[in-house]
Structure formats: structure tokens, C-alpha cells
Amino acid sequence: MNFDANTIVYILEILVGGLLVGIGVHFVPVGGAPAAMAQAAGIGTGTVQLAAGSGLTGLLAAGLMMEAMRLGGIDYNIWLILASGAVGAGIMMGSTMLTGSWIYAYAVGAPFASAKVNFDPITGFSQPPYVAPGTVGQGIPTICFVSGLIGGMMGGLGGAMIYYPLYLINGNASLSAMFAIGIFLVNAVIASWNIQGTIEGFHDPKFKKWPFAFKACAIASVLLALASVLITGGA
Q: If you ran DSSP here, which 8-state letter would residue 228 be given?
């Protein structure tokens, strides 16, 4: 496969997409097992699942938009495709956090509170009075919800940016999706190692560790982009 100008642009798009997936999860309130027991603020599942989930949703939304354009005889519009990925993943993440909030509020009876800040940066509400003893917060406070929406949309945008160039290279949706999912998972695992447990969002002190993930995801994404472009292009 010849590395012309278009191929270099495709590799750069995949690189940026991988970075968005890896860095975007730092915005998502990942509570893991503690959150599932209402002992930490955030979504009760792991970093890898949330990062890959947002990227995969972005891929599906972008693929649906591309298929609609193809059936309608419309030229592919990259901005609409990327917007579809971001909005689709944002809706997914927002729905996940909203459903989790219902369970916390009406099934567990736990107030939403963050132990990482004294006042919610969005609403200004005091947090310490509502943090249950023996926990590091519970539920999904407003700051966590807003941060999660940002992270979800970043992941979805990244998913769309990875899938779109791969599809243009080979025209095979299944092959493109398979390689895109692999890139999601690698960057998701890197982000998981960087976070090491739970994170509440951009207000969490752990968020300052994102440059380490940026460097690692950049190296991994470049290598994965080269491999996926060569393999799918040859296929």
C-alpha cells in the first residue's frame, strides 16, 4: 500500500481518535465496584468498559450516519459523521448515568455527594454533609454528570474518527469495525492503568495524571494506526 497524502491523513485521524478515547475516559465518573455498593461517586463499572463503550457507540452512530448517506446518494460529510459519533456516545453515557442515579436515589436511598470537593463546581452545593461515613461519596453529583457527558462525547468522537478512515481505506464495514474496536480496547486499558481504580471526573485530583495516558496512548495509537492501515488496505 502506498503512503500518499490521504494515507497519512487517515493515520493522523486514527491517532487523534485513539487519544480521544483514552483521554475522554478521564472525564467519565468511574466508580467501579465501590460505586456499585454506593461507597464511591460514579458509575458502578470499570474504566475499560466505559471507554470501549463510548468508542463503540460512536462507531455505531457514525456507521449509521454513513449508511444513511450512502442510501440517500449523499457524499460522505465528515463533520456530520463525527457529530453523530459524539452525540450518540453522549446520549449513551447520559442514559447510563441517569439510570444509575435513579437506582441510587430510589432503590438505595443514597444522596449524591462527592468527597473530592467541598462544593459542587457546577451547582455550588455543599458536599461534606451528604457524604456517608466510611465512604468516599456516592451517586452521581452534578459535576460528575457534566464531566461524564464531556468524556462520553470525546470517546464517541474518537470512535467515529477511527472508524471513518478505516472504512474509506477498504470499504468493508465489518473489517473496519473489528480493527476500530481493537484500537478502543488498547487505549481503554492504557487509561485504566493510568487511573488505577476510580475517578470522579475533571475535578478529581487523579485527572491531573492524564498527560501520562496521553503519551502512552499516542505511542500505541500510532503503532495501531500503521498496522491497521497496512492490513486493512492490503485486505
A: H
Closest CA to 158 of 132, 114, 195, 188: 188
Sign, CA torsion 129/132/135/141: negative
Q: In this predicted structure, what is the pLDDT of residue 173? A: 84
The pLDDT value recorded for residue 234 is 55
Q: Do residues 29 and 146 lie in contact, with contact meaning Cβ atoms separated by under 8 Å?
A: no
**C-alpha pair distances (Å), 221 with each of 54, 61, 92, 139, 225:** 17, 22, 24, 33, 6
| pLDDT for the residue numbered 46 | 82
Helix (H) or strand (E) holding 136: strand 136-139
What does the pLDDT read at residue 2? 58
Point out the residues of the chain with pLDDT beneath 70: 1-3, 233-235
Largest CA distance in the chain: 62
Closest CA to 169 of 89, 85, 227, 88: 227
d(CA 223, CA 225): 5
**137: phi then psi, degrees, rounded to nearest 5:** 105, 175
Local structure of 126: helix, strand or coil: strand
Of 234, 24, 33, 32, the C-alpha closest to 147 is 24
Partners of 137 in the beta sheet? 114
How many separate domains does the chain show?
A: 1
Q: What is the CA radius of gyration of the chain?
A: 19
User: Phi and psi for 185 in degrees, rounded to 5?
Assistant: -65, -40
Q: Print the domain residue range for 148.
A: 5-234
